[in-house]
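Memo to structure team: turn this sequence into structure tokens by end of day. - J.P.
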Amino acid sequence: MLLIQRNDIISREIDDEILLMDNQTMKVHQLNRTASYIWSRCNGSTSTEDITEQLARDFEVENHVAEKHVKDVLAQLLELKVLTPV
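Reply from structure team:
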């Protein structure tokens, strides 16, 4: 699956975390290091499978652990409607 960040979301990186400002809901969302990593790869051309592989490699975790994190984070970001399918 390919997902892309909504183009009206303002994001700011602070240390290893990202803050998202949703202009539609006027809410701010703080992403932890793992969620920030995943968010930054939702560019419309990197698949969820690729994100999982990258996360497993870069965070040195088992693939099934990375897959669970990616699925959980993407589900939350989709629920917040800050990502859209391509």
